[in-house]
């Protein structure tokens, strides 16, 4: 067989799961950019940022099978780091007087500050992972919860640097739909490359069977630590994007409600595949948006009608429970987007 | 000297409260490998059952208006019913799922209940006055102990003894311990799975109800998240005690409670707000030294 034609088809087949996710997202951005109202456009950007975050979360949770409640920590670290570097130069010496002088008295350009913030989040994930990845399944999950609480307590009370539980307002808002799309595509590509790499296959093996994987010479500790660190970088990127999209940073937006929503997205779509992570974000974002509008009130004819505030949270939680009970592996059930003939080939492989 | 005794009393009172919550978590974990986030909402809802649902910050009393015995009974029944309901609706269909799925589902149940309370009672903290007489201090051997702390210790000690007797002496208690040891095997030997699991939830509800009463008398306020911190502490308690070990859960509960009070007392004033972070850091450090927890059970290691 000729190598060049073969490789072309192979490359196409290899990248199909990514393209099948990225192209619809790009279409959504183009269409809503042309025809959608402002509020739809906002929802789309929020959705793209959520994709960065949830795909980042998926890199660890989906591949390792260990639930993490701690990823909002790394988002918060990146978002605050970015705020310290870029926010409100005039006010900083007063509101955040505890910052070291090189941060307090000047602003750092946007790109380097974003890079530094993301690196900081990844570094924090690496350090936490060094400790937590020594633990097994549930104990590790609960320890990530401890990490979330530690950061929340520290940032809520470290008034001179984080302004306590108040919001930091006035970050430059440079995140557009196209930038968010670019970052979402970047996150998807990274996650896909990782899960198809040797490291990715190794950690997926530990997810299916810890003992067998360890017996095949895979280090549970290192494979998980790598995934945890990579996913720390990625949610860090999500944190920076969110901070510079909303223009404000507040520690309470990185706590349990947010963690719940991110996990709900991952579980509903199906935590076993990249496609599941992305589909979950799209579905939950759409649901949240619809119910938020209904809570805001709509008029049917002359009647003004609205759902009581809080219905949206109840419905999301109930929906997630229904998915867990009736379709436990989520909407995508661990599958990637594949070409029909490819799927058959894979089935054939399994059967034969 | 009296000061140290005072601190010790505080520490033991808080430790025993956390031990109660940790036992509730540990019991349910034992029989179905479920780390139950919703325990926080059992506590919260038990406390909210004391008042009539209104938007007011000083709501009229509902169960709280009844005579003490009926009030206590009412709250316990409400919370036990709630625990059984969540078991039946949410957790029973998931019984054979892996622990991660169960953990996530309990997170969803908790989120659901919390928002339900918010929908019914609004999100504002409320004040409620029950058991005011207990605020008075009792003097014992030169140490003034607030009545509520004394009550907490007595209630905890009583419930602990009752629980131990139940688990060691009654047939169903023995079945429950067998289920915690090896669920499959116990089932093959005729352990009634549904009844044992339902009973574990009922007991966790009972303990949750007791905690919500103690907390409400102590603070005099109702808050959507009042159950959260005790349950998070209890999670860490069960992890450092050794998952699946009931004595471990109680021991862990005492440890985190005592550590919390000691840090509160002896940290310099400007570091005190960071107390919880200190306790949680300690949890992670203990796990670093003993990843399986302090008391390792045979059930903690997965069989191949």
UniProtKB/TrEMBL annotation, chain B:
It is a multi-pass membrane protein. InterPro entries: ABC_transp_permease, BCAA_transport_permease. The keyword Transmembrane applies. It is found in: Cell membrane. One of its GO terms (cellular component) is plasma membrane. Pfam families: BPD_transp_2. The keyword Transmembrane helix applies. GO terms for molecular function: transmembrane transporter activity. One of its GO terms (biological process) is amino acid transport. The chain crosses the membrane at residues 12-35, 42-63, 69-90, 102-120, 148-167, 196-218, 279-300. Keywords: Amino-acid transport, Cell membrane, Membrane, Transmembrane, Transmembrane helix, Transport. It comes from the Bacteria. Belongs to the binding-protein-dependent transport system permease family. LivHM subfamily. This is Branched-chain amino acid ABC transporter permease.
């Amino acid at each position: 067989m000729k190598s060049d034609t073969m490789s072309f088809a192979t490359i196409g087949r290899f990248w199909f799961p990514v393209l099948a996710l990225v192209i619809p997202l790009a279409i959504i951005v183009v269409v809503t950019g042309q025809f959608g109202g402002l509020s739809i456009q906002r929802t789309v950007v929020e959705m793209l940022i959520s994709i960065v975050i949830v795909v980042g979360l998926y890199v660890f949770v989906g591949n390792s099978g260990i639930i993490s409640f701690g990823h909002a920590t790394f988002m918060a670290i990146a978002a605050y780091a970015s705020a310290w570097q870029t926010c409100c130069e005039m006010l900083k010496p007063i509101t955040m007087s505890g910052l070291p002088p090189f941060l307090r008295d000047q602003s750092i350009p946007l790109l380097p500050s974003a890079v530094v913030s993301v690196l900081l989040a990844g570094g924090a994930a690496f350090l936490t992972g060094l400790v937590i990845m020594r633990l097994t399944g549930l104990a590790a999950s609960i320890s990530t919860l401890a990490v979330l609480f530690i950061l929340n307590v520290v940032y809520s009370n470290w008034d001179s640097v984080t302004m306590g539980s108040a919001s930091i307002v006035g970050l430059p808002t440079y995140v557009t739909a196209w930038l968010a799309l670019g970052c979402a595509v970047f996150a998807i590509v990274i996650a896909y490359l990782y899960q198809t790499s040797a490291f990715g296959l190794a950690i997926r093996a530990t997810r299916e069977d810890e003992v067998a994987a360890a017996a095949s010479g895979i280090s549970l500790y290192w494979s998980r630590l790598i995934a945890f660190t990579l996913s720390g970088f990625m949610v860090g990127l999500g944190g920076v994007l969110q901070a510079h999209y909303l223009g404000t940073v507040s520690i309470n937006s990185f706590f349990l409600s947010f963690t719940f929503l991110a996990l709900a997205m991952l579980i509903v779509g199906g935590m076993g595949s990249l496609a599941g992570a992305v589909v979950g974000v799209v579905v939950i974002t759409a649901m949240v948006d619809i119910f938020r509008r209904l809570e805001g009130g709509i008029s049917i004819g002359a009647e003004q009608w609205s759902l009581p505030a809080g219905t949206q949270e109840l419905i999301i939680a109930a929906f997630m429970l229904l998915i867990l009970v009736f379709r436990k592996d989520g909407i995508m059930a661990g599958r990637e987007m594949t070409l029909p003939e490819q799927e058959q080939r894979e089935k054939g492989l399994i059967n034969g | 000297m009296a000061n140290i005794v005072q601190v010790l009393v505080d520490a033991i009172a808080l430790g025993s409260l956390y031990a109660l919550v940790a036992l509730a978590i540990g019991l349910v974990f034992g029989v179905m490998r479920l780390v139950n986030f919703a325990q926080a909402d059992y506590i919260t809802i038990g406390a909210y059952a004391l008042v009539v649902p209104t938007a007011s910050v000083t709501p009229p009393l509902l169960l709280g208006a009844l005579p003490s015995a009926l009030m206590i009974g009412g709250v316990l029944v409400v919370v036990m019913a709630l625990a059984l309901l969540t078991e039946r609706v949410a957790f029973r269909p998931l019984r054979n799922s892996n622990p991660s799925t169960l953990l996530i589902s309990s997170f969803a149940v908790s989120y659901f209940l919390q928002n339900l309370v918010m929908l019914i009672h609004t999100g504002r903290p409320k004040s409620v006055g029950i058991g005011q007489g207990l605020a008075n201090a009792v003097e014992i051997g030169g140490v003034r102990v607030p009545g509520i702390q004394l009550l907490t210790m007595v209630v905890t000690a009583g419930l602990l003894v009752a629980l131990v007797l139940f688990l060691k002496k009654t047939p169903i208690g023995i079945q429950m311990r067998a289920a915690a040891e090896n669920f499959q095997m116990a089932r093959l030997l005729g352990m009634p799975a549904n009844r044992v699991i339902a009973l574990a939830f009922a007991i966790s509800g009972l303990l949750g109800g007791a905690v919500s009463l103690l907390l409400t008398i102590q603070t005099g306020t109702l808050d959507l998240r009042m159950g959260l911190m005790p349950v998070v502490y209890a999670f860490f308690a069960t992890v450092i005690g050794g998952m699946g070990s009931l004595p471990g859960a109680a021991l862990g509960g005492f440890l985190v409670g005592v550590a919390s009070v000691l840090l509160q007392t002896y940290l310099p004033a400007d570091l005190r707000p960071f107390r919880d972070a200190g306790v949680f850091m300690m949890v992670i450090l203990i796990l670093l030294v003993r990843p399986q927890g302090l008391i390792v059970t045979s059930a903690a290691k997965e069989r191949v």
